[in-house]
């Protein structure tokens, strides 16, 4: 083999390695959707489509990539976590999203949930209180091409009044009560999903529907989330 064909052979091997690697993630994602989501009753086609396509392994720390599609939460640094795929799917489905929606997320973390929302709706605004996480999620989402997801560093308690009202709001940190500014920034007919409970006791996932000026809340099931913190 001369030098040139050796180089071509090497490149071909390298390229097929990358393809096989990516293919493996596609298979792991399909498996995750089937066994963790559909098997537990997730039916919304938009949620299933999005989670089949968003590369979760790009949102976890490099040393945990092999666990990216496992049935659980994972640490993402700064003492925070990326939620279990089923919880991401359940919360997404609860919002009853349409492709034209504008959505607010509080608790960007890795940016994975924002990307899942971004594949479904027109625009996503997401706020993260920890600066390092906000900055790395911002560049990750940009590099992966999620141009309809806007990340802001700040305290999500106040929502994002300049971009309100929102068709749907998702909070991915456990709050002691539903922040009033978020209720104010939800459109009439809009849905919110938020984990709520006292910091020393059980947190429930709560769905909220705003109807005229009525707020209808429903406790769904107990969940464990990192706490909703405040910038004093
Ligand atoms: N949705 C994330 C996981 C969320 S973990 C993902 O897909 O990876 C919850 C996140 O909420 C943490 O990163 C935490 O720092 C953030 N958080 C807690 N309180 C907050 C607040 N008041 N405003 C904005 N973000 C907050």
Please summarize what this structure is:
The protein has 232 residues and is α/β, with parallel strands linked by helices. It contains 6 helices and 9 strands.
What structural class results from the helix and strand content?
alpha/beta
CATH class category name: Alpha Beta
With strands numbered from the N-terminus, the spatial order across the biggest sheet is: 5-4-3-6-7-8-9
| Radius of gyration, taken over Cα atoms and rounded to an integer in Å | 19 Å
Count of DSSP H/I helices: 6
Judging by the overall fold, what is the CATH architecture? 3-Layer(aba) Sandwich
Q: Which stretches of 5+ consecutive residues score pLDDT under 50?
A: none
Largest sheet: 7 strands, mixed
Q: For this structure, what is the CATH homologous superfamily?
A: Vaccinia Virus protein VP39
The shape is globular
Distance between the termini: 68 Å
Integer average pLDDT = 93
Query: How much strand?
Result: 25-35%
Strand runs, count: 9
Any idea of the CATH topology? Answer: Rossmann fold
Kindly give the count of domains: 1
- Helix fraction? 25-40%
Question: What's the SSE pattern?
Answer: HHEEHEHEHEEHEEE
Bound molecules: S-adenosyl-L-homocysteine
Describe the structure.
- With 232 residues, the chain is of the alpha/beta class.
- The chain has a single domain, classed as Rossmann fold.
- It has six helices and nine strands.
- The strands form two sheets. The chain has a seven-stranded mixed β-sheet. It has a two-stranded antiparallel sheet with strand order 1-2.
- Helix 1 packs antiparallel against helix 2 (45-53) and helix 2 runs antiparallel to helix 3.
- The longest helix is centred in the first third of the chain and has 35 residues, at 3-37.
- The radius of gyration is 19 Å and the shape is globular.
